[in-house]
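User: My advisor asked me to double-check a structure prediction for Calcineurin-like metallo-phosphoesterase superfamily protein before group meeting. I don't want to rely on an old file, so could you generate it fresh from this sequence?
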Amino acid sequence: MNVEGDFRYVTKEGVEEFRDWGFWFLAGNKIKGLCNGLEKQKDVFRGIPSVIRNVKEEEYWPGFRARSAALRPDGPIARRFLSKNLTVVVVGDSVFVHGGLLDGHVKYGLEKINEEVRNWLNGLMGKSAPKYCKGWDAVVWLRKFSDDSARRCDCIALEEVLATIPGAKRMIMGHTIQEFGISHACSNRAIRIDVGMSKGCINGLPEVLEINGTSEPRVLSSNPLYQNNYKPYWDADRKEGLGLLLPEHGPKPVEVKA
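Assistant: Sure, here is a fresh prediction for Calcineurin-like metallo-phosphoesterase superfamily protein from the sequence you gave:
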C-alpha cells in the first residue's frame, strides 16, 4: 500500500519516524557530496509535492513526503530492502503467501509474480502495482482461506490450488488476524499465522509455527493456557463444552517464554 502512496493505516508515530529518516538521509547525501570520486546523489524527494492535500495538519507533511520518497518504486528502502523479499515462496511442502493463492495465480506463474513485483519495487514497471496485488482476490489481500471461521474456508478451491503446485501439502498465510492464535482449517491444509501482535492491531500474544520437516507442524506459544499442549481451535471441528480442553488434530502448541 505504501509503495503506491496509500497511507490510510499509517500512525502518527510512523509518520514522525520517517520524518527523522528523511532528515538523516539528506544529511548523509550532503556528506557524500563532499567526497571526491562519488557520484552525485539523486534527489529522492523529486516529484513529491510539498503540500499533502488530504492531510490537514501541516506538521505531518514532511513525514508523509519522506515516507513516500523512501517506499515508492525505486525509493531507497523499497529498492534496498523490500525488493529483496519474495511475494510467494515454496519451502518443502509448504507454500507461504501473505493473503492467499488462487488457481489463476499459479497458472500465471509464481516465479513470474516474484520477478515482476521485484521489478516494480525497483522502479522498472511504473508506479502502479501489478494487477495480482490489487483487489479482494490479490495474493496480498485474499481472505478466502483465512477467515476466522473455518466453516467459511473454501477447502475445495484450496485443494485445487495446492494440487497445481508440485509437492505442496499446505498453504501458510498471514493478513487475516486470528483472534485466538494460529489456527488451521481444511485438515491442516490451510494454516493462518497472523496473531496480530502489533499494538495497532489486537496486541496478540506471540506465536510461531514450527516446521522441522520430520513431523507435523506445531505452534510455539507464549500463552500459558497452552502449556499442556492443549489448544482449542475455533473451526468446523470445534467441540462443545469440555471438549474444548481436548487436543485437536492441528498444529500442536508448546508453551515458550516470550
